[in-house]
Each structure stands twice: as C-alpha cells, then as structure tokens.
C-alpha cells in the first residue's frame, strides 16, 4: 500500500524511486571499490566535476552508474530542481516561518531583479554593501576614530551561531588577505571567560565593537554587548555618547538596536529572508570585510555566485552540490551512516567544520516533514571534523578500522599561500597525506598484502584495512576569497538538496527554542533561597548542589 502524507504527497520511502534504490542497495551487497575501479579504467575521470576553481572527485564512493542514475531519478521524482528554482525566485519555501530563502540574492549582480512580495531586493543588498564598504575602508585607513580621537585598531565581533561562525571561520580562512595591523576578535559564548579573554589586553580607545544579531534579542549576544559597553564607558570614563564611535550593529531589528543605544545610522541592515546560518555574506560579514577589504569581500561574493549559477543551471549528473547531496542521501538512507566528516587539509580552514555543523545540522536536523508529518527516514547526519593532518593522529583510527561507516570530504589546495616562504616546502607533505588518506580509506589493505609484509599470523587481522570507506576529494587551486565563496556555496546547496529530498524545511530552527525558554526559567532558581518548585527532580537536585557549591 502506498502512503501519502497530509498534503497528499507520496511519502519518500513509498516512492518507486526510493524502493528501487533499496533494491539496488541489496543487489550491490558488499561490492567494493577495488572491484569498481578494476572494472572501469575510466571511473576516476568520469567521476570528476569541475566547478569554477573547484574539482570534485567522487569516484571513491560506493556507487555504480546505476546507483547514480537511481539517485537522479529520485531527485527528479521529488522535484529538487523545482524547489531550487522556487528558492532562487524568492518564493516562500521556508514554510514554517512563511519566509523566502534568498541568501543567493546577497551575491546577485546589481542589474538582476529578485522580488519578495513584489519588491526588488537587489538594490537594498547593494546599498548595504556600499555602506559597509565605505565604513570598512574608513576603519582600515585609520580614519574612523574612537571617542578620544585615536584610530580603531581592534574590531570585536559580538554574535553567536550564524552571527559568529561564518565571519569567524572566514576571517581565519582568509587571514593571509587580512590587513595584519588590524586585530579582529570574535566573542560568542555567554561564559564571561570568552569576553574576558577578548578584552583583557585591549585598548578601549582603539576598539570597535560590532554587535551582530539578526534578531537583536539573543541572550548571549546582548549580555556580552551590555558588558562590553559598560567596560568601554568605564575604561574611558565617558558618557553614553561615546558608544557612537565604538559600537555598530548588524541586524534586521532597528527598534532593538536603538533600544540598546546604538544609533540606527550605525546599523548595517539585512533581512528576514536571510537565514542566520546563511548570512555571513550579508552585513554579518562586516568584521570580515574590515579585515580583508571590500574588494576581496566582493571577490568572495563572486565565488558564491559562480556556484549559485552552476547549481541553478548544470544538469544533475554534472552538478556538484546535487551530487554531493544525493551521495549523502544514499549513505544516510541505505548504509545507516550516522555521521559525516569534513577534513580540510588546510590550517586556515580550521573553523570550517564548526561552521558546517550549524549550516548542516541546524538546517537538516529535523524529524517532521514540510507537511507536518513525522519522517520515516534518516535526515541530517552529525557533521564533524578538524584539519588534517592533526586528525590522523587522533580519530582516523576509527575511520579506518572502526565499526561505523563515516563518509568523508577531504579538502585540499594545490598552492600554499604566498607569504609562507620556506614553510611552503611542507605543502607537498600535507597534500601527500590528503591523497594517501583517501586512498587508504577506499582501498584498504588485504590480509594477503599484510601477510606478504611478513606480519605474524596472529597480528594479520589487526593490521588489515577493510577499505570501502567512501570519501569525496575537493581540490582547488588555492584558498582565495573567491574559492572560499565557492566552497561555502557548494555546501549551502548540498544541504539544500538533502533537505529537498527528505522533504524537510531546511530553513527553520525550532529545535533551539526549548532550551532558550527553559534557561530563562532556570536562571532565577539559581539565586539564594529561590524556590525550585516546578523544576524536575534531577534539575532541582543539580540546582541545589550548584547553589551549595556557590555558597548560596
Ligand atoms: O538559536 C539559534 C539561532 O537562532 C541561529 O539560527 C542564529 O544563527 C543564532 O541563533 C543567532 O541569532 P541572532 O543572529 O538573531 O542573534
């Protein structure tokens, strides 16, 4: 019997295309990568896609031509392309919040028209970019002076989630392009230690705070911003008016920005059709723009746009985000892969996995479909990773010989950055490790190979590598602003494809609300003598112990 959901849509797992994939998975059994490569000398070449400066090698996946065809059939059956086009047109595809999803408009050229509710949003995007550019140039040139007339030398971005992870990741990634005499710091955690460490050696006269919050109601950000303001006024011995030279805001909420004491003149706007985790190429990227300059920032936007166009127009079989998304669907649906590792072989991309955690897990960590029905299939994986080669000496053991299948993305760059000097000689070693890991994961080492090395019989099993651990390799020329934009857009659209197939709303985040509400309820119970009535027994016991430890 075929099940339809409340909207009359055939459930994903009831679609003939899904069933065909399930049957195909059974037939494939444990067909391995050695076999697939041996049987097809062209496999590596055919399973490669070029997008701008990126090259995606997806040959080391547990797929045949048939698998890929069936995955494409599935994408067609659920109309991924239709939803994609609706997103680009500005339709309100964020159904639970009734919002358009238009991060792609943030990188649209000036002459394109994209309408939301009958209004072209592109002029607004460029007007904010122009204001950001003028401001960034002034700060970079030392022309933006603080209250006492000294030029700003440190920028502290206060934000959390999408208002922190994107700019922090990109600042780290593009450090070689940053104006090195400007220090940019990021404070996100409501743990006072974060702000303390950021401020302890700062000169308030030369410090600018960017309070970045889409809603301007986020507890962590407003708490940190309030303390930073008090610190500044206290250190300067100044009146509230000093705030004007030391605080700017990035938000969609003018009223709350004013209420905080920041003049809306010093606010850089964005819009509710930009999701927090899709926002670092909006004004949320102001700290980054100050660091790398408006020209580089726009190069990054061009990189985003290049992949947007590819995603919008390339046929599925050559469409990198489509392929990456569908491969993830394959492993989640038919291999029970619980996690996905992102392993950048670039120290500059150290924060990229953390950035992707929000992008992917806040988007696709859902268990109710877009029509309000519980899903009966696996949705978003746990995304994790750290830069190679560090991880190799920590958790790669499990990737190679553990009992979990962990599909991985290995990301590397052909050229090291120019300023490394003699240290650039280490680059081949870094990249040799990347290539070797993909090889080892895919092809492993058989018992015969181990024995041939003279390994004692009792150790042979321990020294074997099963192989067939799938990975994609993303190789690019160098980590430039444009390439970073390309990379981020690639993952944004990959996440989109998966959400579209799983029929979930990738653009809401209701799952973060309960914790926020409960924290507000718990906080008053931490005071001396406060009642813990209404707390569950476990929490009440913990609160009680906490209070005793705090001497309350
Ligand atoms: O709590 C989750 C979240 O809403 C994220 O989606 C968002 O990026 C983050 O909080 C920060 O929100 P804001 O920019 O409104 O402070």
Automatic annotation (TrEMBL):
Entry's family note: Belongs to the GPI family.
Catalysed reactions, as listed in the record: alpha-D-glucose 6-phosphate = beta-D-fructose 6-phosphate
Gene3D superfamilies per record: 1.10.1390.10, Glucose-6-phosphate isomerase like protein, domain 1
Any one Gene Ontology molecular-function term assigned to this protein's record: carbohydrate derivative binding
Primary residence: cytoplasm
The keyword Phosphoprotein appears for this protein: no
Chain segments annotated as coiled-coil in the UniProt record: none
CDD domains attached to this UniProt entry: SIS_PGI_1, SIS_PGI_2
Keywords from the named record: Cytoplasm, Gluconeogenesis, Glycolysis, Isomerase
Example of a GO cellular component annotation carried by this entry: cytosol
Function of the protein: Catalyzes the reversible isomerization of glucose-6-phosphate to fructose-6-phosphate.
PROSITE patterns linked: P_GLUCOSE_ISOMERASE_2, P_GLUCOSE_ISOMERASE_3
Name of this protein: Glucose-6-phosphate isomerase
The keyword Membrane is annotated on this UniProt entry: no
Recorded superkingdom: Bacteria
EC class (word): isomerase
Pathway: Carbohydrate degradation; glycolysis; D-glyceraldehyde 3-phosphate and glycerone phosphate from D-glucose: step 2/4; Carbohydrate biosynthesis; gluconeogenesis
Enzyme Commission designation: 5.3.1.9
Example GO BP: glycolytic process
InterPro entries xrefs: G6P_Isomerase, G6P_Isomerase_C, Phosphoglucose_isomerase_CS, SIS_dom_sf, SIS_PGI_1, SIS_PGI_2
Family annotation (HAMAP family): G6P_isomerase
């Amino acid at each position: 019997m075929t099940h339809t959901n409340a909207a009359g849509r055939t459930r994903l797992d009831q679609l003939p295309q899904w069933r065909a994939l399930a049957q195909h998975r059974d037939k494939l059994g444990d067909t391995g990568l050695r076999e697939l490569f041996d049987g097809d000398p062209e496999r590596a070449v055919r399973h490669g896609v070029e997008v701008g400066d990126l090259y995606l090698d997806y040959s080391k996946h547990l797929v045949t031509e048939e698998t890929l065809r069936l995955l494409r059939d599935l994408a067609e059956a659920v109309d991924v392309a239709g939803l994609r086009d609706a997103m680009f047109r500005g339709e309100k595809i964020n159904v639970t919040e009734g919002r358009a999803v238009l991060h792609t408009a943030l990188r649209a050229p000036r002459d394109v028209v994209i309408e939301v509710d009958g209004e072209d949003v592109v002029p607004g995007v460029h007007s904010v970019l122009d204001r950001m550019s003028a401001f960034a140039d002034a700060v970079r040139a030392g022309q933006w002076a603080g209250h006492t007339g000294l030029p700003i030398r440190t920028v502290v971005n206060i934000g959390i989630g999408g208002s922190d992870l994107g700019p922090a990741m990109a600042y780290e990634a593009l450090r070689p392009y940053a104006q090195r005499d400007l220090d940019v710091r990021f404070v996100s955690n409501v743990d006072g230690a974060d702000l303390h460490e950021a401020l302890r050696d700062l000169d308030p006269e030369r410090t600018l705070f960017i309070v970045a919050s889409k809603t301007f109601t986020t507890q962590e950000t407003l708490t940190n911003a309030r303390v930073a303001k008090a610190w500044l006024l206290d250190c300067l011995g100044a009146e509230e008016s000093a705030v004007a030279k030391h605080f700017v805001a990035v938000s969609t909420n003018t009223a709350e920005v004013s209420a905080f004491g920041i003049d809306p003149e010093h606010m850089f706007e964005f819009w509710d059709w930009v999701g927090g985790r899709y926002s670092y190429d909006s004004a949320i990227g102001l700290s980054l723009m100050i660091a790398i300059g408006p020209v580089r920032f726009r190069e990054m936007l061009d990189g985003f746009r290049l992949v947007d166009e590819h995603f919008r127009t390339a046929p599925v079989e050559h469409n990198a985000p489509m392929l990456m998304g569908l491969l993830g669907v394959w492993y989640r649906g038919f291999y029970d892969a619980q996690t996905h590792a992102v392993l950048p072989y670039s120290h500059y991309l150290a924060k990229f996995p953390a950035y992707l955690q929000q992008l992917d897990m806040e988007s696709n960590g859902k268990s109710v479909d877009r029509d309000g029905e519980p899903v009966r299939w696996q949705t978003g994986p746990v995304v994790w990773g750290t830069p190679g080669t560090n991880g190799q000496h920590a958790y790669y053991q499990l990737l190679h010989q553990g009992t979990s299948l962990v599909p991985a993305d290995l990301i590397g760059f052909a050229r090291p950055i120019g300023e490394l000097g003699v240290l650039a000689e280490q680059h081949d070693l870094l990249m040799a490790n990347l290539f070797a890991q993909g090889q080892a994961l895919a092809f492993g080492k058989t018992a015969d190979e181990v024995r041939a090395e003279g390994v004692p019989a009792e150790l042979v099993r321990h020294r074997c590598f099963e192989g067939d651990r799938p990975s994609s390799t993303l190789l690019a020329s160098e980590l430039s602003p444009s390439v970073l934009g390309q990379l981020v857009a690639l993952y944004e659209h990959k996440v989109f494809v998966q959400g579209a197939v799983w029929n979930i709303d990738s653009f809401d985040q209701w799952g973060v609300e309960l914790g926020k509400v409960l924290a507000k309820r718990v906080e008053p119970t931490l005071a001396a003598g406060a009642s813990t009535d209404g707390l569950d027994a476990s929490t009440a016991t913990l609160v009680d112990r906490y209070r005793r430890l705090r001497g309350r």
